[in-house]
Structure formats: structure tokens, C-alpha cells
Amino acid sequence: MPIVDSLRPAPGLRVLVTAGASGIGAAIARAYCDAGAQVHVCDIDRYALDRLVTEKPGITSSMADVAIEKDVDLVFDDVLGTLGGLDVLVNNAGIAGPTGAIESLDASHWERTIAVNLHSQFLFARRAVPLLKQSRANPCVIAMSSVAGRLGYAYRTPYAVTKWAIVGLVKSLAIELGPAGVRANAILPGTVEGERMNGVISARAAALGIGVDAMREEYLQKISLRRMVTADDVAAMALYLSSPAACNVTGQAVSVDGNVEYL
């Protein structure tokens, strides 16, 4: 296969994207759909799901809270009904979690962050792996971590804890699943442009008692390229990691962040 062709995911690839109706998840779902994949997404936001499916009629969807096992089981019922199997799991679901000093954090907010960001990764991987082992299409798990999964992140400890854990999960899965031909990698986005990042910057500015504009500039000064990345940048990496060109890439934590130097 020519190298250029190997950079494209195989047509007809069966892909599940969690939290795929907006933000990074939607960018990934659209990119796979445009590449000729069969895409199923789940999300907790019915309005966002309807909007995505209207925009991309080829995408199928399920409404689900990714932290609830029963909901996850229903998603896989839909996946089997619509896709008939699975070649790629993009474990994308995550929330920002609370911002504040460790002694000020509410335990329920900590628990919800762990449930959505980490426990959901387990629930989906557990159900997806038997299907991926049956695939002959370069099967893989792509887990969404963060630059906070390689750097400490003061005042965002619940979020950072989950993102570090996701890196440990994919490195362990790469070893466990490698003999079956299933790969596992993590993508570590940096500061991603969009409403979610705007909220994070505002919350952090409030926690530190500084202005939002000053906080935004502080974020940019920590990035070697002095710019944020886009959701499409992250989607491009997901496409690469599921392409034939990445057939020997596994157990990796791949940053898409312009080189964030510190947080």
C-alpha cells in the first residue's frame, strides 16, 4: 500500500465515539464520517445528538450517561444493531470537574469527575474489547487523556488524576491486548479553543483572583507555539491512530498541544 494511502482509515471502519455530539467528540465523529467510516456516537445531551445527526445523517446515535453501566449496555445494543461490530472505540467522554484548592472540594464533585472521566473508560473498554478482538480492520482503543495527564495541575486535581489514570489504562491495555492484535493509545490535547476552555479559564481566573484576559494570556505563555489547538487537530490525530500507517503504534500517550511546557 502506498504510504499516502496508508494514512487514511479504511473505508467502512466501524467506530464508536463516546460524548460524540459536541466539542472534540463531534469533531472526531464528523472526521470519521467524512473519511467513509460507519460512526455511532453516544451523548447525554439529546439536543446535541439531534443536531449532529441532522448535520451528518450517516451517523447513528444513543442517548446515555457514560458513567452508568445500564446506559453503556444499551449503547452497545445499539452499536451491534447499527454497526454489527466494532473496529475503533474512541473513549472521549469527560468533564472539566471542579476548580479549587483540595481542601475546598466537595466530595460529590470529585466522585462525579472520577465516574465520568475514568469509570466510563472502564465500562466502555470492557464491552468493546470482545468486539475489537473479532475485528480484522486494525482494531484499536483511542482514549482521550489531556496534557494534564503528563503535568501536575494545581486547583484541578480531580481532572488531572483521571487524565493520568487514563494514560496508565492504555499502556496496560496495550500489553494486555497486543497478542490479540488490538492496539490502545491515548491522545493528550492541550488548550483546545472553544466554549469549554473559556469556562475553564474563567473558573481558574476566579479561583486565583485575576482577570479572565490575564488568565487567557497566561495559558498562551505556557505553550511553546503560543496558540491553542483546535478540535479538528485532535480529530486528525484520532484518524491517524486508526489508520494502517499506525498499525505498530500502541501503548503511546500522544500530545496534541503545541507543547504545553507547564500548567
From TrEMBL:
<dbReference type="InterPro" id="IPR002347">
    <property type="entry name" value="SDR_fam"/>
</dbReference>
<dbReference type="InterPro" id="IPR036291">
    <property type="entry name" value="NAD(P)-bd_dom_sf"/>
</dbReference>
<dbReference type="Pfam" id="PF13561">
    <property type="entry name" value="adh_short_C2"/>
</dbReference>
<protein>
    <submittedName>
        <fullName>SDR family oxidoreductase</fullName>
    </submittedName>
</protein>
<comment type="similarity">
    <text>Belongs to the short-chain dehydrogenases/reductases (SDR) family.</text>
</comment>
<dbReference type="InterPro" id="IPR020904">
    <property type="entry name" value="Sc_DH/Rdtase_CS"/>
</dbReference>
